[in-house]
Amino acid sequence: MIPGGIVGAGTKVVAVVSGVHDAGDVLAELLPKAAISWADADDLADSPWTIRAPEAVVVLARTPTDLRRIVSLRDLLPAVKRVVVAITATPSWYDAPHVALARGVGQRLVREVHITRYGTSGWLVATRLGKETLAGDIVTAVAAGGTGFHLAAYPLPAAGLGEPGLADWRPGDPDVAVGGRPEPSGISSSDLAVRAPGAAWPDDRVPAAGRASWRDTAWAKAGAPGGYPVLRAASAVTPDHLPPVDERSVNPRGFLREPLQGIADLTGHAGVWGVTSEGRELVRFHESGLVADADVDRLRPLRGLRLNWRPAHTGPVAAARVVAGLAAAGVPLVSTGPAPIWAEPLLGGELLSHLATPGDIADDLRREEHSVRLRRHALRAHGTTARWHALAVAAGKPIPPDPPISVVLCTRRPDFVGFALGQIAAQRGVDVEVVLGLHGVPEEAVAGAVADFPLPLTVVTADAATPFGEILNLAVDRTSGAYLTKWDDDDWYGPDHLADLVLARRYSGADLVGVASEFFYLEQIDVTIRRRWSSEVMADHVAGGTFLISRETLRALGGFRPVPRSVDIELFQALLRAGGCIYRTHGLGFMARRSARRRHTWQEPIGYFLHRAKEQWRGFRPSELMEQA
To answer: In the prediction, which pLDDT does 223 show?
Structure first.
């Protein structure tokens, strides 16, 4: 029940609901003595409320994913002094929410905040404000407080939505303009828009793509006998007709490497898609096909999902959205047969090619490799960033390139420089420059390797007595990329290592991302080990030779400490003390080398690694994702 000091008896309340089927009953429980008028988020433009001049607004969302849909509709909510946000289910990794308003502007208006658990996994955030404030601002602040927000996200065109039912096309963005009318100043309210097919857009300066909302029966409902859909103009359908996956809420976070349960069935039944195991329903997805973070969390203990294409369902868009969302979350999917004719136009042939067979995921390592392949492609092809980039390209709108990455490689060992530069040159999907710091090494000792390197490269030299942290800072001063990453000279990196870090930063919102140091090749005894490390989690450290951080963040922290060792740990601790966050993604694209102890800054004997091994193999045995011959 909502605290009486926020919403007391007789208070006139308007409520906005997203994803909650029994909304009337839930609202009656939360507000037993209030006068309530409520509407589904998709109906906001129709002004359905009977209460005028409300005293409070209640936003009721099933999951944080559903809450982020309402953020895109913030301007349609009224201004009040009392706002309540209720989320009925959150994933296990979800932090306690807070109201992340702008300091000195919105935060100073807060007079009272109550944050309490709601049910077994939900949250209730009740606020009282000093003056009437758009309820949408509070919704945005709670959504940002729960999942995090960083300003250095990848640039997207300012978006417009023709109607609230299209909120899935730009979830979590508070700057979306709904309706399309120009600003009072005459400036267009958006740079690129999505509207219903055939609908007019009020501002002819703004290119608007026709896209159907999930309620459009031409797309949402099955139209052929037996429940199989017939797509109109199927030859013109592409993945860009599918609403994007909200990568900030549906992503690999929380992936379990050692599942305790078997393979369940993903199938359509009674107009919706769901997951069943031994006759028991584990998850029922929304009729639209939206996959939410809390849904994914319930599926994490499963080894995988068996995709049954044939049963009747709500139609091609809903079915494709379910598959794309689960793939983006890294849920291992296995197909029971050939995909229907509509699947490839909407999902893309590459994603379909990554669907496995049950035998492919029987082994834990093979299962995780399969998960990484799925999530890579689904997030890059179906995430919000990818979708709006594609819409912009189709409309002839310019899109800034991905931020360049500066690789900082500092070494005392000239014999490893060619090896390291060769792996950097093999990186895919990123724009890279290298700053090579020679630590007591003359330039002529690496002249051949430097001359053969095909990418921009700068050499920095320092004498052998220079502390390691100091030469790292000298190298950083010569970089020009928006992001910096540290590279070890003797370790192995897969060709998607940097692209995976960029992707992890995008979906995690973390200030620093890196990988788990789980694979080690013990060169002295010719043994590969894999250690136990959790991945796809917020953490307090990552492998020191793998992290990615923005230039601004590193400079704000004062750079690396000018010390001879432990520079990575010192940086991680400084970031955490400053209130930043670290995300650890999978470690399948990285393998550390351990030779004689004197050759490494990290001075641990072979027995240290053998004692901590989860698995071990004779010889050099990297993950298949390393693509090492």
So the answer is: 45
